[in-house]
Amino acid sequence: MNTAIQSALDTAIDSLKQQGVLPQDFQNNSSLSRTRDRSHGDFASNIAMMAAKAAGQKPRDLAEKILAALPQVDVISKAEIAGPGFINFFLNDDQRFAVLDQIIAQTSQFGRSQQFNGKKAQVEFVSANPTSSLHVGHGRGAAYGMTVANLLEAIGWTVQREYYVNDAGRQMDILATSTFLRYLELCGQSLTFPSNGYRGAYVTEDIAQKIFDQYGNQFNRPVDAVFANVPSDAVYAAELDKDGNKVLLSGDKERHIDGLIHNAQQLLGAENYRLFHQTALQVILDDIKDDLADFGVTFDQWFSEATLKDKITEALEVLDQNGFLYEKDGNIWFKSTNFGDEKDRVVKRANGQTTYFAADIAYHLNKFQRGFDEVINIWGSDHHGYISRVKAAIDALGFDSKKLTVLLVQFVSLWRGSEMVQMSSRSGQFVSLRELREEVGNDAARFYYVMRKSEQHIDFDLDLAVSQSKDNAVYYIQYAHARICRLFNNFSSQLGEIRFEELNAHKAQLTSEAESELITKLAAYPDVLARAAQQYEPHQLGNYLKELAGQLHGWYDTHPIIKIFAEQPELAKARLLLAYCVQQVLKNGLSLLGVSAPETM
């Protein structure tokens, strides 16, 4: 119906162009939106205010000319001018009730569209280093990425969900060496564990123990040899502090761990070192996959960074052929400043090693070669400065960087009462996603992770997430769904089988203001869904469901159904129909957010 109104407006604008009221080159960038208050109509257009300057007229005067040029449209009962120049459209009753017919006919598909049918999008999200369990910050990226993908599919996109596995970088070497040191401890040796190694109990209990159980002392090496010629990671003052502890002055933690990695590789040999590396990778990756699957987050592809070796060579060759590489101080540099980056970037060091950035260039080359119409990267907010250089590389490779959308996800602060929990993946002192889910449940976690714009910080309130009150939005919405389920169970047990065809025959009985508002709210769902998807903002859908649940509760408390069935059966049936339609839309929306719609609570 909004398409019919927009078409009528377009016709009116074309007519005014022909009359010379508007210039021929006028571009109609106005919006047609549903009104919040039905006393202002069902739809409102700001076309008169948008076109007033081009016409050289006051908005209300132009609005009158637009109404005069508006062709007759069956769905419109009337149109009027409001405020500074809005044009409000009122639908006839048949059209207002049409949404109930659509919901009954389309059920779980109501609200979905094929607007972008034939278009392919890739959404890459989470992509956390496989060096520890996922923490609550990763959980936000997981919930947000999965929901964005769901929303895009709901408007017709074919979506590939992808996790980029960083299995070839230095962090994996630190994890492998940390595992080796814990293995040596299991062999009975004593050592001082590096302060910037991975210190969580999982390194010993889940990885090192697995290797020890399978191979025993086979890889035992002298601790002195492991620490030979390795710079200390700490320098202490000669005197002690008041508690008798050494005072740390300085240290070289990075050279210390790099020395340990080098010695571990030498002492174990390539094959055995790879055993530690791959065992650590697989244990952590399996844990991540299980954790995400239990959270309702799944991927179509787990892309290994380690497979990019040939692609890195290809990417650098393309950049070189296109004239965007040069050598300086033995390093190979990419001319990213040619594309607006703040400085050029090294892609290959003098020692022949390629950089992380070179791998990212190769990964995006691979993405664009796969033919996606839209590539969406969901990164942590600390990657903000990385966007310009990646887009520069895409353009330099000969692709269109406008097809890349980078969505940044801000950090999460987890609060227990008045205390904020600190997190550190190397020390192991962090709250994992799994622990959060166990405490508040999947539904609350999925819902509250997406209820703010991705670039806004979240203070996750544990007490609110588990409360059973109207202040807890996810509980409030789920309770609305369960309340309607209970209504239908009671109706069936008292009055027999429900036939929706019979209920639908009485929808004209829905004449109260609250019922009109509910119907209007239901009709707005497809537009809200489309807007949330196209703007990558799941919170718009969450807020809509919260408002719909609020209207349902208010209506349900004041509009009896079963109690009036004997005296007003037609009205009771109409209200049952409305309740069912609200239930279906709540269920549809919750499903897209990855939240369950319980039938009892």
Question: Can you walk through the features of this model?
Answer:
This protein is an alpha/beta fold. Among the domains are: 1-94, Gyrase A, domain 2 (2-Layer Sandwich); 98-112 and 471-593, Orthogonal Bundle (Isoleucyl-tRNA Synthetase, Domain 1); 170-291, no CATH class. It is built from 20 helices and 17 strands. It has helices at residues 2-19, 47-55, 59-69, 93-106, 136-154, 170-186, 201-215, 223-227, 253-294, 309-321, 356-369, 387-396, 433-440, 442-449, 462-466, 473-495, 500-504, 513-534, 538-558, 569-593, and strands at 32-34, 43-45, 76-82, 86-91, 120-124, 158-165, 235-240, 246-250, 301-304, 325-328, 331-334, 345-348, 374-380, 404-409, 412-416, 419-420, 458-461. The strands form five sheets. A five-stranded parallel beta sheet has the order 9-6-5-13-14, covered by helices on one side. Strand 7 (235-240) and strand 8 form a beta hairpin. The radius of gyration is 31 Å and the shape is flat. The two termini are 37 Å apart.
Q: From the helix content, strand content and strand pairing, which structural class follows?
A: alpha/beta
Strand order of the largest sheet: 9-6-5-13-14
Q: How many H/I helical runs?
A: 20
For the secondary structure, the number of strands is 17
Poorly predicted ranges (pLDDT <50, ≥5 residues)? none
Could you give the distance between the termini? 37 Å
Query: How much of the polypeptide forms β-strand, as a percent range?
Result: 5-15%
Please identify, by name, the CATH architecture of the domain at 98-112 and 471-593. Orthogonal Bundle
CATH superfamily of the domain at 98-112 and 471-593: Isoleucyl-tRNA Synthetase, Domain 1
Helix content: 40-55%
Question: Taking Cα atoms only, what radius of gyration do you get, to the nearest Å?
Answer: 31 Å
Organism: Alkanindiges illinoisensis
Pfam family, one: Arg_tRNA_synt_N
Subcellular location: Cytoplasm
GO molecular function: arginine-tRNA ligase activity; ATP binding
